Amino acid sequence: MTAAKVKVGIVSGVRLVRESLTLSLRGRDGIVVVDAVGLDPEGIARITAAAPDVVLVDIGHTEPAATASLLKVSCSQAKLVAFALAETDDHVFACAAAGFSGYVPCEGGADELYGALIDAANGRMHCAPHIAAAMFGRLSVLFQQRPALAALPSLTARENEIIVLAEEGRSNKEIARRLRISAATVKNHIHNILQKLQVGGRGEAVARLSTTRLV
To answer: In angstroms, what CA-CA distances link 196 with 81, 99, 103, 127, 184?
Structure first.
């Protein structure tokens, strides 16, 4: 028996970029490109219907946070990988904060692109040494200075657990495995969280979580 292939969706506002990325990934072991679309309503409907495991997003032609928020709603189970990212601390951290699970730098080649998709599908992220060093530096400051997390108003203990895991960029399936509950139960909790906080998506709910911290 052969292992199931990782289903990859491609999102870019430029047709030539979509076609080039598709060609670069064609025939690669372990993955299959299920669709390559723009960010128009038709494209979002198509990528939602394709139900990819990983979505490769050309952020050279879009705003990362807004795009991540849109895709997290339509493809809540998918990991997001940023393509054509300037490999600086601020750009990488901004993508991570927006919900991306990995990235391919502007100077990355076909092999690096392929590796980033496989890593994202398996819960890993490869990054340059200076990015890893900066990340550890910021985490050190964060954990030394940040006070305890305050619970979001009106949420149950379980809902607070779920929104914290969502902030880490985990999909519904990952949250379900972590908490040992069904994905359907997680989906119901997410729905209740959005209603209670009166927000339109996971990204907005996570933003509310950030406002409860005093940095």
So the answer is: 30, 22, 33, 37, 18
